[in-house]
Design brief:
The complex is a heterodimer of chains A (about 80) and B (about 325). Chain A has about 80 residues and is an alpha+beta fold. Chain A is about 20% helix and about 30% strand. Chain B contains 13 helices and 13 strands. The chains are: A alpha+beta (about 80), B alpha/beta (about 325). The interface between A and B is medium-sized, with 25 and 45 residues.
């Protein structure tokens, strides 16, 4: 299945891209996708907490992804 | 040229006042307390001397004067609506005529703004545009809270502070600039950082608290006091070219604790990550818009949502928090 990944703030800079599509196996969970993203970041996201939104909604817990889902990874930002 | 209702009252002997509104509007919204004549087509040009033209909101007459190049002719700012309100309450709201003409705001909305109190925590990148826009919008009282002083590295993104303000407290420097915009707004300066001992006292006396801080710990404190006092919190955050805004704790809606599950970690400050100078102006003004919506009771808003904006590609994303 195809999943669109949207990257914000530190995630965008860690991966060097703001949006891309991943081909994943059916049944992939959001927690597995997060590990996939963190490993792609090569340590640059270590210590950074991330909220995950699927199709523009925060997910309350780990859920199974569906073909065509949009997943956003949102870190906290401090600046003001 | 324009004239405010107050100026017209004081100088009415200098002018012939001409009401260009249709009869139905004149009957529904009569202008009392002034000698006024009703216009007919071409009639305006036959009157010599200084004239004041009146329409319902002051917009049609301003256009007429420019288009027809009318000499010695003024438009009543805010029109009959502003005059009627001035007569009934002796309060000249014509200054805000461009926003009271908006049906979502109106005179009632403007009065709510004039009676509202807003606490702004942080007078840096976000606090400058937020306070600037809210003072211009006619907010009744601002409480400015910040223990920091102005530094050279602040100036590229904090336009209330200038080169001569380096070394001054940020609240004092901001207050001086804000008073030049609108001296009616009451401004209380608190030259301290918000903390456990003072936060609740300041926040609970306000209608809205603006989070314009630069660290997660203070955001968590504001969130807690916002929940305890049932005062909505308008969160803003910056990172390089990107910004975030959310309206939190509105009658039990999600707060900062729900936005970034505690303990959030890893956010970098502007000093660490850098920030484009124009970005706070955009994000701070979105915070100001949401503040006005809350006070005026406009239901299309960011309650329970997180807005993210990227100035690099102008991507905007709105996420439902829950």
């Amino acid at each position: 299945m195809k999943i669109t990944i949207k990257c914000f703030s530190q995630v965008k800079y860690a991966l060097g891209i703001d949006e891309f599509v991943l081909e994943l196996e059916a049944g992939t969970m959001t927690s597995e996708l997060e590990q996939n993203i963190r490993s792609k970041a090569d340590g640059k996201l270590d210590g950074i907490s991330l909220r995950i939104a699927v199709n523009q909604k925060y997910i309350p817990n780990d859920i199974e992804l569906n073909d065509g889902d949009e997943v956003a990874f949102i870190p906290p930002v401090q600046g003001g | 040229m324009i004239l405010t209702p107050k100026e017209l009252l004081e100088r009415q002997s200098e002018f012939t006042v001409i009401d260009i509104r249709p009869e139905s509007q004149r009957k529904e919204f009569p202008m009392d307390g002034i000698n006024i004549i009703n216009s007919e087509d071409g009639f305006i040009h036959t009157i010599e001397g200084k004239k004041v033209l009146v329409c319902q909101f002051g917009i049609v007459t301003e256009g007429m004067i420019i288009e027809q190049n009318l000499k010695d002719t003024f438009s009543l700012l805010g029109g009959a609506q502003a005059w009627i309100d001035f007569q009934s309450e002796k309060e000249d709201l014509s200054r805000w005529s461009r926003q009271t003409v908006l049906p979502e705001v109106g005179l009632e909305g403007q009065k709510k703004l004039l009676n509202a109190s807003v606490a702004i925590v942080g007078l840096g990148g976000l606090g400058c545009p937020v306070s600037q826009s809210l003072v211009a919008a006619g907010i009744g009282k601002l409480i400015l809270i910040d223990g920091d002083s102005v530094e050279l590295s602040n100036l590229h993104r904090q336009p209330l502070h200038g080169t001569d303000d380096i070394g001054k407290t940020k609240v004092k420097s901001a207050e001086e600039s804000l008073r030049t915009i609108n001296s009616v707004t009451k401004i209380q300066c608190v030259d301290e950082y918000l903390d456990e001992s003072n936060g609740l006292d300041f926040i609970q006396e306000c209608d809205v608290v603006i989070d314009a801080t630069d660290n997660i710990q203070t955001r968590q404190l504001i969130d807690r006091f916002s929940k305890e006092s049932n005062v909505p919190m308008i969160y803003g955050g910056l990172y390089r070219w990107e910004g975030q805004v959310a309206v939190l704790n509105v009658d039990g809606s999600p707060g900062y604790k729900e936005l970034f599950l505690e303990p959030p970690s890893g956010g970098e400050s502007c000093a660490d990550a850098g920030v484009l100078g124009m970005l706070p102006g955009i994000i701070g003004n979105i915070q100001a818009i949401e503040t006005v919506k809350l006070i005026v009771s406009i239901k299309t808003n960011l309650v329970g949502k997180l807005l993210m904006y990227d100035g690099m590609n102008h991507r905007t994303e709105i996420i439902e928090i829950g």
